[in-house]
Structure formats: structure tokens, C-alpha cells
Amino acid sequence: MPNKNLSDFEKYILFEKGTEPPFSGEYNDFFENGIYVCKNCGNELYCSDSKFRGHCGWPSFDGQINNNVRQIPDKDGIRIEIVCAKCEAHLGHVFYGEGFTNKNVRHCVNSVSLLFLSQNENK
After folding, report:
1. Average pLDDT, the chain
2. What residues are annotated to the active site?
3. Domain count of the chain?
């Protein structure tokens, strides 16, 4: 269920499985210390130490917090979609075998799907 405070664009990305234009997102080249939570429900999704430069146009992470991100087959039958495990909001897609990090996984996430909380806000 969409949060009533979301903009129409945020609802499009999160609940109609849209994609923001590459290199346009607020968190694409953002590398502060903290955590990223679901824009819809606030579920903790990614720590900043799992973020890396994927050079793909969207924030890239090679790990998630606990089991807070769920993977499901994408409707295109090729990719793997990632959603918030709590509210099922669309985050993006996950890719394996690209070799960007030692974990060999890239969560490619729409900035619009995320809200960043700085390390100071988490204390």
C-alpha cells in the first residue's frame, strides 16, 4: 500500500515498477555514511558500506540488511526484481556475475525508492 505522502513519480517507481532515468537519481554519486531505507515504509535496506560505484546510472549495492530485500522473477522473464520485504515496493533489479566486487552481486536501485539516513540520524 503506497504511503500517502509519496509524489506521483515516487508512486510510479515504487508501485508501478517504473525506472528513473539513468544518472538522474539523488543517490547515484552519493557516498555518505549511514543507511538507506525504503521510501514507502522506512524498512532498513542497505548500509552505506555496501554501496559502490557501479557506473550504471543508478545506486549500486553488493549487500542488504538482513533479509529486508526480497528477490522475485521480473515480469520480463529475464531479470530478477528486488522489492522491499516489508511493503513490496519496487526497488530495482539484482545482477550476478559482473565482477564489480568480491561478492559478485549488484543491487541496482532507483534513488527514488530510497531515503538516506546519515550516521548521525541513526544514533
Report:
1. 95
2. 108
3. 1
